[in-house]
Amino acid sequence: MRYAMAMDTKKCVGCSDCVVACQTENNVPHGFCRDWIVENVDGTYPNLEMEIRSERCNQCEDTPCVRTCPTGASHIIEGGIVKVTHVECIGCGACIQACPYDARYFHPDGYVDKCTFCDHRVSKGQDTACVAVCPTKCLYFGDLHDENSPVSKILRERKWKVNAPEAGTKPQVYFLI
Amino acid sequence: MKKTSRRDFIKISTLGVGGLTMLNPVLNWVPGFMPKEKTPVDESKAKRFPTFCEVCFWKCAGFTYLNDEGNIQKIVGNDDDPHSNGRFCPRGTGGVGLYYDNDRLKEPLMRVVENGKSVFKPVTWEKALDFIADKMKIIAKKHGPESMALLYHASSGSYFHHMLEAYGTANAAKPSYAQCLGPREAAFVATFGAGLSSPEPTDVKNTKCLVLIGNHVGENMHNGYVQEVSDAIDRGASIITVDPRFSTIASKSKFWLPIKPATDIALLLSWIHVLIYEELYDKKYVEQYAFGFEELKLHVKNYTPEWAYTQTDIRPEDIRNSAYEMAKASPAVIIHPGRHTTWYGDDTQRLRAMAILNALLGSYGRKGGFYFPESKKVPEYPSPAYPHPKWTWKDITKPTYKGAGTGLANDLIKASLPNSESPYKIKGWFVVGTNLLTTVPDKSITLKAIQNLELMVVVDTMPMEITGYADIVLPECTYLERYDDIRSNQHRYPNIALRMPAAEPRWQSKPGWWIAREIGVRLGLQDYFKWTNVEEELDWKFKQMGTSLEEMQKIGVKVYEKHKPLYLADGEEYFFNTNTGKIELYSIDLEEKGYDAMPRYTEHKQPDDQFYRLIYGRAPMHTFGRTVNSPHLSDLMSENTLWVNPSVAKIWDLHNEQYIWLKNQDSVISSFPIKVRITERIRHDSVYMVHGFGKTNDKLSRSYGKGIDDTELITNVKIDPIMGGTGMRENFVTFVTKNPHQKEQNA
What we know:
- The complex is a heterodimer.
- Chain A is α+β, with helices and mostly antiparallel strands.
- Chain A has 6 helices and 10 strands.
- The mean pLDDT of chain A is about 95.
- Chain B is an alpha/beta fold.
- Chain B contains 25 helices and 26 strands.
- In chain B, helix 12 packs across helix 13 (about 315-330).
- The longest helix of chain B has 19 residues, at about 125-145.
- Chain B starts with 5 loop residues before the first helix and ends with a helix.
- The interface between A and B is large, with 58 and 77 residues.
């Protein structure tokens, strides 16, 4: 099993619903987020282009965050989801430095926190909170090893890219372009 | 593309303005709100209560979930609900913040004079309600009950409406008409004999071409509409966006026409010209259903794309090609009527031009155009007939604005002015869930009117600016803590939804239905409130509708069978509710009322040197000022920014993130500064900001002084002669880089 997510930059309106839904689902404290919106504008008026992305931990296959963690708090679970065992985390921040995507943050309670692909939901067959809420249905989730999963299907149909491929981490969040 | 990071998000995204990292997480932590390491709610086991959202008028239905401690944790859409299809928008998802906001109104407050100064004193509900009823009795005796007016927007407004009608007044207005969608309603009534109402019956999910005139869907998060637009993008439908700003939806459009502001009617007339003179309109449809085609043809003869170019800055070939795109999609094409349409004063005529375009393209009553909606009638709980008021808002408004479809908030405010020469004088206000000072432009008039009132009651959940002027402030509990009247809006299928409390009201706040009933009883109107608890009233109504409160508490939403088709059958005879029974391209009704029978183009003022047109709009995570103080949503966007074109920024030597003040054409200076956002996404002759910020009440701890309230700079109000709406987009601002309030502060 290899969980992955695809996000359609053509449909996303950058409303941040994914951000709020994640916060209320996962008790993310005010002032922090596990997912976020990026907007890139190119060109000059009136010849403009804009891309909007909903971003989060890329649940990389090659994980510098896990490699640098001195306590083993950062680890990989079934489906390739990268998790942090909060009680084992000493808050040293090495993983934050190592992550090319700035996907981790210091939780005010003294540990490092990040997106979990809502493993508590997907293990029960539900979608992640962000996928379930998105009004534009621009997020696709599933198992890449299952060719009928929404993410496998959409990646076959559409052109895609990943963020910072040069970092060599084999990210598993795909952006449909 | 540069490496993206959470820090960049703050700087570059539309959301990033002063957002996440600027907040001190410790200070913003709400004690007891989210205890450490709480496990997520298990939806299959958790307690949940049906509701429909109160964060905007779309009123999406969903469920409020409690966590293990029994506190409200999250709100999730109801899959059976056609408004949300199980997906809430960011505001609805973040609606929990309205409940947890500790800045909420907590107890009834009464204005008293202490040591020569007006102050609010906390009083018991008993005392507050007695005071209101006594005053209302005096007003009824002195001026007649008609002199009380209701200005409202919240769902609970219906209970206040009922109480006031029983008392003897029909004077009521929502700013959502004359400050928002009124022109489009008047225009569609004049053209098709029916307004559009809400949610708009636009068949976006089946359309092949969606045409948006300043409509920024995606930034306005009208949920079902956004969802259908996304589906349309998936299906490859083409979008044509007319906007001086490169809006989110402009970036997803096949055609973005960056129009010179205030020239929309020129573009619309030239599109009509192209469709008619190049014979691209739906001939069969027009012949069967439309009236006045020949007059229209003659009328638009000279409105060529070449002429329109001189007005709009849009090249003739772009005008033609976009018209061809619409014609190709016809009848599955929508010239979307939008919602906030009070712009330049000739708004009903602009919307008329849009309605006429829809008619020429044969889209009204057609798949992929406008469908025929249906709604379920909610029966009235048995009570005596209302007394017949001696006069109503119609006597105030209709002689001047003959096309007005409802009361006008701005007209009821004017009727409250001390020097009002009209015999129809308003002496008391109930303000329910609307912050009139930021919803109705030119607040100097509102403030003058307030000084003349004998009673002003404000019912709200938050200490909005308007509360500061009340005699009595009543704290309403939020929608998550109360029942409300049944939601029954039109849609493809008739449907109803229940809102029920998921928690006890915090502090001393109370539901609107209870407040209205208690006042009613004190006024001796018990017969109009024969139920003692709203559950009794709702259950009775539900039972007439083939369900019950008990069933609705489980399912939340009930969808009924349809009785009429969504679309016209091919060649079907259809009677439009107009003078001619046809779609009136040439409006007999408007002509008889003394207005132009067909839309004309008039040039509007453009900004003077060093001034820029003030354009305002929405951000997806906020519903105007209603949400800017929410702990959840202010996290996402805590202040608005001023969008400035780089060429303008260069002239003024402005820098990104620099705070500046604005001064308008009438020398009104903004109370607070706003952060500059230099972006190519706005025209050089305009600036843009999101509406709803710049709160002036320091009781709003998260939003006080953050950004600028555009309404305070809207002092030039262009009134629509047909329906009396307040056009707000002919205001121009210039930049003030040094603090203009410095002196006052030092003095």
